[in-house]
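[Q] Does anyone have a clean structure-token version of this?
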Amino acid sequence: MFGLSPTRFLTPVFALALVGACLPSAHARGRHPSHNKSHHGGGTTYCTFYRDRHGRTASNLAPRGSWVLLSRGGTSMRVKITDTGCNHFDLTPGQFRRFASLSTGVVHGVTWRVLPRK
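[A] Here you go.
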């Protein structure tokens, strides 16, 4: 019927299902907030940047809405966590430039701690 045999149809569907089963889930990639060993206190991590037109700073390391102090090499800055998504800090390009040029891409050895609420 319509030139499609059942084996032609099932082969791509099976292949897609197999590929989907082999990809790690978001939970397995460590994007689940419960994998945070610091319990929202602080630690050492790395930072990347992304171009978000809303100027969001994303991380699963601290609760959304909290202020975090990031420090590296004598430079510190306060950032507000406004989005979730990763077990490091995704900064805006302007924030990232405080630590390194954008061409660096990733800055390692960044210490962080959640600032107390006032």
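[Q] Thanks! Anything notable?
[A] Confidence is low (pLDDT under 50) at residues 9-38.
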